[in-house]
UniProtKB/TrEMBL annotation:
Top-level taxon of origin: Bacteria
UniProt-recorded name of the protein: Prolyl 4-hydroxylase alpha subunit Fe(2+) 2OG dioxygenase domain-containing protein
Taxonomic source organism: Candidatus Fonsibacter lacus
Taxon lineage: Bacteria, Pseudomonadati, Pseudomonadota, Alphaproteobacteria, Candidatus Pelagibacterales
Length: 145
């Protein structure tokens, strides 16, 4: 896992363009209107993820400082199973939905006390590639302006 920062963004020129767009006040206001959150003073955080064999993530709710979470799946050759998508749970931690792990597919949600999600123990053949995009309240290298 690697965050895109001012130290490494030149390695990811297309992601830097994406980050620049997310940092535009107009973009943040538009997204904020859809999720009913004020993102005008937020920071953007983008993480490149390649979960390996044996990875799993117990059910949890995101910290309140994560105003918005978005996971975009990258499974271009459909090598990995669609079952590798994020699992969502009810308040009793009963699995209610698995978002399919499909190329260029993803989801968005906001943090809250009832936003339980994780990844059950599943077979990962090679790696589970994703791009995580967050608007957060804490400082990162990328401020909305």
């Amino acid at each position: 896992r690697e965050f895109v920062t001012k130290d490494n963004y030149k390695d990811y020129p297309h992601l830097k363009k994406f980050i620049d767009e997310l940092c535009k006040l107009e973009t943040a206001k538009y997204i904020g209107s859809k999720i009913k959150k004020d993102l005008s003073k937020a920071y953007v955080r983008v993480e490149i993820i390649a979960d390996r064999v044996g990875f799993w993530l117990k059910p949890h709710c995101d910290i309140k400082e994560k105003l918005m979470s978005c996971l975009l799946f990258a499974n271009p050759d459909n090598y990995e199973s669609e079952e590798l998508g994020t699992d969502f749970y009810d308040k009793n931690l009963k699995l209610v939905k698995t978002v399919p792990y499909k190329n260029n597919y993803g989801y968005v949600f906001t943090s809250g006390p009832d936003t339980w999600h994780g990844l059950e123990k599943k077979e990962i053949k090679r790696d589970r590639r994703c791009l995580q995009v967050n608007y957060v309240t804490f400082e990162t290298d990328w401020k909305v302006n």
